[in-house]
Amino acid sequence: MALIGLISEKIIKTPLVSTDKPDVLRELVQILADAGEIDNYDAVLNAIQDREDKQSTGLEQGIAVPHGKTEAVSTLKLAIGIAPQGIDFNSMDGQPSKLFFLLVASPGQAGPHVAALAEIAKLARSKAFCNALINAASPHEVVELMTGE
Amino acid sequence: MSSPIEKIMVYIDGTEQSVTAAQYAICLASFSGAELVAQYVINTRAVEDLLRASIFLKEEQVEYEHDMEADAERYLNYVNELALKKGITITKRQSRGSVNKEIADAVAELQIDLLVIGELSRIRSRRDEFYDETERAMRSVSCSVLIVKDEDKVWEMYQSLV
Hints:
The complex is a heterodimer of chains A (149) and B (162).
Chain A lengths: L11 E2 L7 H14 L6 H14 L8 E2 L2 E3 L7 E11 L9 E9 L4 H15 L2 H8 L4 H9 L2
Parallel strand pairs in A: 1-4, 2-5, 3-5
Antiparallel strand pairs in A: 4-5
Helix pairs in contact in A: 1-2
Chain B lengths: L6 E6 L3 H17 L2 E8 L1 H9 L5 H28 L4 E7 L2 H12 L3 E5 L14 H8 L3 E5 L2 H10 L2
Parallel strand pairs in B: 1-2, 1-4, 2-3, 4-5
């Protein structure tokens, strides 16, 4: 399954209202809960938090990729959150994170999980595209940017 | 004239779509008498990219590669069981590397006549970042490619196979 197949307006939130790392993780997982993508909010949040506890997934240039594995989901789940104001996420370059891709997968779906993360890694290399996403006015615009429509 | 399809390869990647593709390939092998190969690629190239991008920690690289090996074993065993139930023998293969290259190399090495893959995403992107490895393989292999759609219909066809 390509990452693009997971993208829909209901799993995108812009702007995020959180102002710190613990809150933004909760808000991203809540996007999935509100979209009806997950039933067990706590299990998903714990999986994401466990990974963050090892090392922040805040990359350079305002991108963060919180991810984790849990039996609480049966298929790959993606949430996208945008915080144009930036949130301190203990990122690699010390800069605030603005574009969040949260990915959670079942432990038995390592292949699709890795493939989707690899697509996000490619996307993160395109500064201009990431800036366009950060400045998108609505989830609809994010979908349009991603599909190239 | 011999059958134009003597060797079929189905690509298994741990998705439901690839399992549906396997059911269809089993039906095709049954109808045509073709030899059937199931290929799983442990995408170590992507894992290395994720380590380089600092999305993965070193311990995650090891953990995810181990998970993918377990997935490969489990999914290949599952499609093997599906085949055996219909009296079809499957050759199970797994390799490590880049999905696109490994599939293309396997097709060439085994002289595959038809590659069967699961349904690709219906949402298309014109952006290069969102390319699908299976779609890339579809374009680069030397043999014909069949994309399997409609899982309910395929399941009925598989079930009706004696």
